[in-house]
């Protein structure tokens, strides 16, 4: 069994994590730069010592500050694959892959057999005799994956494995990882900025901000109803945070009242909540509209960008510094309304297009 449990605090980085992952599941860790994603991997891999906490893998305790337990990185049964392949430059691809089996005490012939198996699995048999300097970025990353798997890890940690690859190479590597992770039911944690990685590889998502997990759940749930600004941005929906004022409205910290439809069980007045709505549901007006009950937000246009066949009109940051609201309109509407950065307009959305959700409980401190 390779179920993962992490509950650890690292004071000097302002990080405190509480993460669980079932045997054979893949967790995608998302978040902005500097959020603490790699810190989480370091705690699991044994590269960082927590000030307080517990890390277990299956029935084995890897870190326990209460008892003084700390298993060194090489003995954890954990393989860490980073953005850079970090292959041994003086060894061939086959020798790189055979290194871990040899380190475990296998004979040369046994290690060679293991290496041949994993080179086959990553479609790189023809690269066996090449040295790292003779490999492309995508080829080197395939060899690095084979080397990691040849170590027979109980847990695979992937730190932005596609980040350094050409955009044309990444999809093939993503398909390869999906096949290996799914076919073998491997437990894995993948740190990524790319929504496609989460969609293609992961069962669950954890969103990290400022050293804490602020949101977690299945990929479908997190992307369908995000509760954090980062998840909302990558999911392509608008999010406004505030406090519940009535069963069908919230009020933001700057006094904006947002009406919507309660999408969950009744949340007590005064409790934190978020309002979600799609950019396609937002209409743009140059004057405040009148008529049916609608939410109307006075905003200043920050930027215009093509988004498929539409133009995404992105407002400047909200008063609390969060990402500005977005509206998807036609190119004809942009021309007709003379929309441009710096112009003051009104974003309007019907209450029935807005869903209200309670926020998650506060992160572990």
TrEMBL record:
Q: Which residues form the ABC transporter domain?
A: 6-235
InterPro entries reported for this sequence:
AAA+_ATPase, ABC_SmlMolc_Importer, ABC_transporter-like_ATP-bd, ABC_transporter-like_CS, Mo/tungstate-bd_C_term_dom, Mop_domain, P-loop_NTPase, Transp-assoc_OB_typ1
Picking any one GO molecular function of the record gives:
ATP binding
Keywords, comma-separated and alphabetical: ATP-binding, Molybdenum, Nucleotide-binding, Transport
Origin, by domain of life?
A: Bacteria
Q: Does the keyword Nucleotide-binding apply?
A: yes
Domain Mop per the UniProt entry, residue ranges: 290-358
Q: Name one Pfam family in it.
A: TOBE
Q: Which PANTHER family match?
A: SPERMIDINE/PUTRESCINE IMPORT ATP-BINDING PROTEIN POTA, SPERMIDINE_PUTRESCINE IMPORT ATP-BINDING PROTEIN POTA
This one is known as Sulfate/molybdate ABC transporter ATP-binding protein
């Amino acid at each position: 069994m390779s179920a993962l449990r992490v509950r650890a605090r690292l004071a000097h980085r302002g990080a405190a994590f509480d993460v669980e992952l079932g045997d054979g599941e893949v967790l995608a860790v998302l978040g902005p730069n500097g959020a603490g994603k790699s810190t989480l991997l370091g705690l699991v891999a044994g590269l960082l010592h927590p000030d307080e906490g517990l890390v277990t893998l299956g029935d084995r305790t890897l870190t326990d500050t209460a008892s003084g337990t700390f298993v060194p990185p090489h003995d954890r049964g954990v393989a860490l694959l980073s953005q850079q392949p970090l292959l041994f430059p003086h060894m061939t691809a086959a020798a790189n892959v055979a290194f871990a089996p040899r380190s475990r005490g296998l004979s040369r012939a046994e290690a060679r057999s293991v290496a041949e198996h994993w080179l086959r699995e990553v479609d790189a048999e023809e690269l066996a005799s090449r040295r790292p300097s003779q490999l492309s970025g995508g080829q080197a990353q395939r060899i690095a994956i084979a080397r990691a798997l040849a170590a027979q890890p109980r847990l695979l940690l992937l730190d932005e494995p596609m980040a350094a690859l050409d955009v044309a190479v990444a999809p093939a590597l993503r398909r390869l990882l999906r096949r290996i992770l799914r076919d073998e039911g491997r437990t894995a944690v993948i740190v990524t900025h790319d929504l496609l990685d989460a969609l293609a590889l992961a069962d669950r998502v954890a969103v990290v901000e400022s050293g804490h997990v602020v949101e977690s759940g299945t990929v479908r749930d997190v992307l369908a109803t995000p509760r954090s600004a980062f998840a909302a941005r990558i999911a392509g929906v608008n999010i406004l945070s505030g406090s519940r004022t009535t069963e069908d409205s919230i009020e933001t910290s700057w006094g904006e009242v947002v009406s919507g439809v309660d999408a969950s069980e009744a949340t007590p007045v005064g409790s934190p909540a978020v309002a979600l709505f799609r950019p396609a549901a937002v209409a743009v007006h140059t004057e405040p509209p009148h008529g049916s009950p609608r939410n109307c937000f006075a905003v200043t246009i920050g930027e215009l960008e093509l988004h498929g066949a539409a133009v995404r009109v992105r407002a400047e940051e909200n008063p609390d510094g969060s990402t500005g609201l977005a509206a998807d309109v036609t190119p004809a509407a942009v021309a007709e309304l003379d929309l441009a950065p710096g112009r003051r307009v009104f974003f309007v959305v019907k209450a029935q297009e807005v869903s209200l959700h309670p926020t998650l409980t506060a992160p572990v401190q």
